[in-house]
C-alpha cells in the first residue's frame, strides 16, 4: 500500500514539472517560422519560458533581430501560448533607430535582451490603464532607451492580446 501511495505522489510531481499544455520547443519553432518566414531559422533566437498568459501552463517567448527588411533591421518578438487547448501566437515587429514611441533606440547589434518580470495586478493596471492583464511582463531592453514592456491581456481582442507599455 505504501508503495502505491508513493507512486501516486510521483505522478503528481511529474505533472507539475512538465504539463501537457506547456508549449514545446517544436511548437515555438513552428510559430517563429509562421510569423518570421523561411529565414527565421537562420537567425539566433533568444527563448524564454514562463506563464505570460496566467493560465497555469508554460508559454514560450522567442525573439531575434531580423535583417529581412530592406529598410533596416527589425526586432522580432513572438509569444506562443494555448487558449482553451488551441495553439495561439502573436508577433510584434519593432524598428530600430526610430523616433516612434514603440521603436527601439539601438541599432540591433547587439540584439536587445528579453526577460520576464513579475509585477502585481495593481502595478500592471497602473501601467496599462486597463484591468485583466497577466502581470508577468515580457521586458525588452536595448541598453539605450526605456524598457519596453509587453503584457498579455486574455480578454483584450480576439486576434490581439499583447499590450505595449513604456515609460
Ligand atoms: Ca500560459
List the main descriptive attributes of the protein structure presented here.
single chain, 167 residues, 4-stranded antiparallel beta sheet, globular, binds calcium ion
DSSP strand tally:
8
**Mean residue pLDDT:** 89
Instruction: Report helical residue fraction.
Output: 10-25%
Q: How much beta, percentage-wise?
A: 35-45%
Can you tell me the residue ranges where pLDDT is under 50 for at least 5 consecutive residues? 1-15
Order of helices and strands: HHEEEEEHEEE
Going across the major beta sheet, what is the strand order?
Answer: 1-2-3-4
Largest sheet: 4 strands, antiparallel
Rg on CA atoms, Å: 18 Å
Heterogens: calcium ion
Tally of contiguous helical segments: 3
Shape: globular
For the termini, the CA-CA separation is: 59 Å
Describe this structure in words.
With 167 residues, this protein is an alpha+beta fold. It has one domain. 22% of the residues lie in helices and 37% in strands. It contains 3 helices and 8 strands. It has helices spanning 2-17, 25-36, 121-128; strands at 46-50, 59-66, 74-83, 86-95, 113-118, 136-141, 148-157, 160-165. It has a 4-stranded antiparallel beta sheet, covered by helices on one side. Strands 5-6-7-8 form a 4-stranded antiparallel beta sheet. β3 and β4 (86-95) form a beta hairpin. The longest helix is centred in the N-terminal third of the chain and has 16 residues, at 2-17. It is globular and about 40 Å long. The model is unreliable at 1-15 (pLDDT under 50). Bound molecules: calcium ion.
